[in-house]
Amino acid sequence: MPLLVPGADLGALRDRLGSPDTWLIACFCAAWCDTCGQYRPRLQALSDTLPQHVFAWIDIEDHEELLGEEDVENFPTLLVQAGPRTVFYGPMLPHIGHLERLLDSLGPDSPAVATALPDLRRLLRG
C-alpha cells in the first residue's frame, strides 16, 4: 500500500480510514529535512509490506492544521493509532527497524498514550 500524503491522497486516506479498526501510522516530517528525505523511501517500503495499515507522510509546514497546538521538534516524529486509540507518539531514530520492532510489539489492546494532537483520524476523514 502506498505511503499517502494529505492533500494529494486525501481521497485514498479517507477510504482507508473508513474502518474504525484500521491502524494509522503517520510520520511527521518537513521537506527541508535531509533525515526525512532519507527515511521516506524506507517508510514507503515498510508500508508496502504492511498493506493492512494506513501509512501517512505529513509535512508539518504543508499541513500544520493536523498538529493543532503540538510542536514537532525532532524528525521523524511518529504517531501510531490502533483504531481510535493512540498507542505511540514521539520522535524515533530514523532506522526503519526501530519502527518495525515497535509495530510488532503493539497490539489492539496496547495502552493508549496522551498527546496534544487533535483527532488526526477525524481531520483526515473530513
Would you kindly provide a written description of the structure presented here, covering whatever features stand out?
The chain has 126 residues and is of the alpha+beta class. The chain has helices at residues 10-16, 34-49, 96-105, 120-125, and strands at 23-29, 54-59, 77-82, 85-91. It has a 4-stranded mixed beta sheet with strand order 2-1-3-4, with helices on one face. Strand 3 (77-82) and strand 4 form a beta hairpin.
Strand order of the largest sheet: 2-1-3-4
- Total beta-strand segments: 4
What spatial form do the alpha-carbon principal axes imply? globular
Largest sheet: 4 strands, mixed
Q: What are the low-pLDDT stretches, counting only 5+ consecutive residues below 50?
A: none
Q: Determine the fraction of residues in helical runs and give it as a percent range.
A: 25-40%
Q: Total helix count? A: 4
What integer is the average pLDDT?
94
Q: What would you call the structural class?
A: alpha+beta
H/E series: HEHEEEHH
Q: From the alpha carbons, calculate the radius of gyration and give it in angstroms.
A: 13 Å
